[in-house]
Amino acid sequence: AASLDGATPVRTFFAVTLPLLRAPIMVSLVLRTLGALQALDLPFVMTGGGPGNATETVALYIYKNTFQFLDFGYGAALSVILLIVAVGFAGTYYRLLAPRE
After folding, report:
1. In sequence order, what are the residues at sequence separation of 6 or more whose Cβ sits closer than 8 angstroms to the Cβ of residue 39?
2. What is this structure's pTM?
């Protein structure tokens, strides 16, 4: 329909295709961001966070403080902060990419 109205392929992409892809892009961004924030297994198994904390992720830092140093309160507080950060990212993605009517 857009080509019949005389729209160029670039205009068709930005006016038709991209708005229809906003919801899938938003879901993908949220899931990938949450997965990146929760990355624990690979850095832990491969390097243990080393050499010298170079590959230590947030989740690995929380794990080490909670279970290796037995500081459960600090680990719980870090987990809540990570939850707030994750909800902040998801909210920002939703505000920027939610389908508009």
Report:
1. 57, 59, 60
2. 0.79
